[in-house]
Amino acid sequence: KILYPFRLKPWQESKGGSPRGYRMKQNDYFSFLTVLGMETNLPFGSYIKRPSFFEPIYKTLKKKIRKVKK
Questions:
Q1: Which residue range(s) make up the domain with 58?
Q2: Which residues pair with 40 in a beta bridge?
Q3: Does any domain span residue 19?
Q4: CA dist., res. 12 & res. 17, Å (int)
């Protein structure tokens, strides 16, 4: 069981500090790992498909290349 799994995101907007008195709820978000290293919601369940780290980067580069060609 993995509590609060960490994922890399290419761009994140800065967020202001968390409000006073804010506490993370216990066991808010968790997942399990399959034998192949994929995440699942249930043990031995089907895996969750997560977007690629590089996909938004490629899209942004393609847009910029199209602008330069025009």
A1: 1-8+24-70
A2: 32, 47
A3: no
A4: 14
Query: What is the rounded CA–CA span in Å between residue 49 and residue 32?
Result: 13
Task: Tell me if 21 sits within 8 A of 45, measured CB to CB.
Answer: no
| Domain annotation covers residue 47 | yes
What are 25-70's pLDDT values in tens digits?
Answer: 544 677 888 888 888 888 888 887 777 788 888 999 999 999 998 7
Q: How far is CA 36 from CA 2, 5, 57, 58, in A?
A: 15, 16, 26, 26
Contacts (Cβ under 8 Å, ≥6 apart) of 53: 8, 9, 10
pTM: 0.46
What lies within 8 Å, CB to CB, of 27 at 6+ separation is 3
Amino acid identity of residue 54, one-letter, is F
Decide: helix, strand or coil at residue 14: coil
**Number of domains composing the chain:** 1
